[in-house]
Amino acid sequence: MAIVKPHSFFSDFDIALFLNGKHTRLYEKLGAFEIELEGETGTYFSVWAPNAESVFVVGNFNFWDSTAHGLYPRWDSSGIWEGFIPQIKTGETYKYWIKSKTGEILEKLDPMGLFCETPPKTASIVWNTFKEWNDQTWMKERSHKNSLNSPMSIYEVHLGSWQKTLENEYLSYADLSDKLVQYVKEMGFTHVEFMPIMEHPYAPSWGYQITGYFAPSSRFGDPQGFMTLVERFHQEGIGVILDWVPSHFPGDDHGLRNFDGACLYEHPDPKRGFHPDWQSYIFDYGKNEVRSFLMSNAAFWLDRYHIDGLRVDAVASMLYLDYSRNEGEWEANVYGGNHNLEAISFLQELNIHMYGEFPDIQMIAEESTSFPGVTKPVFQGGLGFGQKWMMGWMNDTLNFFHKDPIHRKYHLNDLTFSLIYAFTENFCLPLSHDEVVYGKNSLLNKMPGDEWQKFANLRVLLSEQFTHPGSKLLFMGGEFGQKEEWNHNQSLDWHELENHYHKGIQSTVKALNLLYREEAAFYSKQFSHEGFEWIESNDQGNSVITYIRKGENTKHQVIVILNLTPAPRENYRIGVPLPGIWKVLFNSDKSEFGGSDYPISGAVMTEEINWQGKAFSISLNLPPMSAVILKA
Question: What sequence ranges are listed for the domain Glycosyl hydrolase family 13 catalytic (predicted)?
Fold first, then answer.
């Protein structure tokens, strides 16, 4: 076998950027790349391991011989080891055999590896990210599709369990390129969000315990297969968002933990470097090289895979030093507070760089506390995200709908409170996977009452979500009212669509998606107080709430009426902002949605009767447990 030849992809400028935490393109420099050098085809390897005494590349090509192919340490004290091995080509498996300065022997995957063996195997695979993309139309238009004043209705998907083969095997990226893309298009969602597709050894982690940060999971195919899936979504006008996990990583022996015999990626202090809830390890956000690694990883997916946005997982756990820790298990920052200043600085810099390099994407924070300014610009002291998950809305709304309708008149505040703070951030309203696991019940079985009431309640819940200010996110299965909790080991219960009620929920979501996309009142000012006005928020006697959603002009006004009990309301009067005929755009009680088809006029003429502070009003019948949407 040929010897290792000295070679480098790094310039002095690259090294300076890396050491100062400013490099956002490390995936062009670190890793394994098939190249031609001096007329010979082979692979250039490079890895950051500053605490190593020696680094060897091992694999099938050298019978896993830990003495055959040693890399060279750079002279600049960067801690980078590199070299060119002839004859090694794309598709070859490899690991790094590392001897630390303390004598510890480790076998590690490539932190920058582009492809991995399918778990439980753990080696990296020499690969590339070459593709001739055919999504130019989407890429030119996505600045509009991803803007804050455009509709964003997100379908959250776990690729391993959306649908499976008859043998309960995973669908491939190619299968999903046909089936999933067409389904999301048919349902009317504007975006799809994948729970982490980066390589992870433990399937029950759902992808949130990542070892291969630069490798799409080989469970479903190769990197080009995933690229094609993204491309197919784009060709159908649908954006792709990825869950991204810079908050923690698992302790698997082949992964990032103790990478070169020392705490390289994780913070060395267990009070800051170990996560007690998840038994995982926390990145050292104050280490410049780690910042370069994480920022390069974010840029990698946006660049090489044409991803349209990143939903950053567990931001709250990054922001607080005392997150999920008891007294004595954490130490205050230099100012005596509980904020992780290094993580805050990292997130600000991350958003500056990502929006600077990819201005037409969205950075979305899953942040569950009242930390101020998550979606405010960094120059105003904010974190710089584009959107934030509205966990308060989710909790309050699900609590409200869980209550027996007879008691709801005492709890209308649970449903209306969110509007007090709805415009303090750019909020996304999530009904996510976290709400339908671990004994929390499916969305359908959170609803009270008999079968009819459960489905009617769910239709009203979904109507409230789609008409409330903010963008929307719905986890797979919720769109047809799956009865059972989500199980990552099996397919969704698609057979339930043979039932009229489940089919009705699916039709409801289709209709709401269409309404959300077509009526500017629902999206053009969805993050501004100018786009919302209460008509009545406290009709406890009837448990009915009414509000106006507004667009850029008065023609873009719609009225939403939610009847939150199974009692129909005859001749219910509401004040309206405009005289004329008000037409029914949507009625969740229609039989096609699984409703009772309670008699209701399709259009109502205003009367000059002052009501609820308006000069004009209308009177109409409200079906039981329903959402009715009107437009002048």
Answer: 156-508
Strand order in the sheet with 40-48: 31-37, 40-48, 80-86, 72-73
Strands 387-389 and 427-431: parallel
Cα dist from 51 to 47, 292, 364, whole Å: 12, 18, 35
CA distance 455 to 209: 35
Which two structure tokens, joined as six digits, stand for 516? Answer: 């959300």
Reported as type and span, the H/E element at residue 285 is: none
Q: Which of 313, 425, 479, 539 is catalytic?
A: 313
Nearest residue to 246 via CA among 187, 184, 304, 310: 310
Query: Are the C-beta atoms of residues 531 and 469 closer than 8 Å to each other?
Result: yes
Classify each residue of 528-543 as buried b or exposed e, where b means 16 or more C-beta atoms within 10 Å of its C-beta.
Answer: eeebbeebbeebeeeb
Q: Which of 410, 419, 414 is nearest to 540 (CA)?
A: 410
Confidence of residue 2 (pLDDT cuts 50, 70, 90): low
Q: Is 132 a catalytic residue?
A: no
Using one digit for the tens of pLDDT, what is the confidence trace for 318-346?
999 999 999 999 999 999 999 999 999 99
Query: Is 313 marked active-site?
Result: yes
340 vs 391: CA distance, rounded Å: 21
Three-class DSSP category at 179: helix
pLDDT for 332-385, tens place per residue? 999 999 999 999 999 999 999 999 999 999 999 999 999 999 999 999 999 999
SS3 category, 291: helix
Taking the C-alpha atoms of residue 562 and residue 315, their distance in angstroms, rounded to an integer, is 34
Greatest Cα pair distance, the chain, in angstroms, is 92
* 117 Ramachandran zone, left/alpha/beta (phi>0; psi -120 to 50): beta
Enumerate residues 6+ apart whose C-beta is below 8 A from 226: 173, 197, 216, 220, 305
DSSP 497: G
Q: Which amino acid, one-letter code, is at 520?
A: A
What DSSP line would sit under 341-406, residue for residue? HHHHHHHHHHHHHHHHH-TTSEEEE---S--TTTTS-GGGTS---SEEE-HHHHHHHHHHHHS-GG
Q: Whole-angstrom Cα distance, residue 516 to residue 116? A: 40
Cβ neighbours for 408, distance < 8 A, ≥ 6 positions apart: 400, 543, 564, 565
Q: Which of 289, 342, 366, 396 is catalytic?
A: 366
